Prior knowledge:
Its main location: cytoplasm. The protein is an alpha+beta fold.
Amino acid sequence: MKMSIHGKQLVITDAIREYAESKIGRVEKYHDGIIELAISLSAVKLKTGNYHTAEVLAYLEGSTVKATCTDEDLYAAIDQVADKLEGQLKKHKEKIQDAIRSREPMAKKLKYNPDTKTVEKDSAAKVVKVYLPPKPMNLEEAILQLEILNKVFLPFINAETGNMDIVYKRKDGDYGHIEQPRKK
């Protein structure tokens, strides 16, 4: 992991550099994908007193995490930014692990059979029942029913054709209609 320390209106002494490297360098154990840590330390003199800001940009594989803390004492600002960055990196790693775990069940439900060269469903896969209104209805009634039930899609028996059709709400706010092809 590469670590760079820069000072704005502040001279970075060896003591400050060693302290920042030791405190902020410990966050490496909370995330495996840290490529670089860019640490920026600055000092501002105001009427109310001196303030020091510690800002850290952690460049990860595919994203960036930023933490900033301000305090009257530079060492306290470094401590606070290290703690803040630690929490953010833990949260980021948990999000990645949750995303990976959510994809695993789908892969477990399907099995490839090399003998028949087909993909077969696992016997533990659940069957989901879909509500089909008992009375046939036309397209306008189906759209109204879709809105009343607050569903994304609704299968229904088309009163005109007698076939099962599906009406769904599109992302642009319009409605889609999937109808079964008519037999000739």
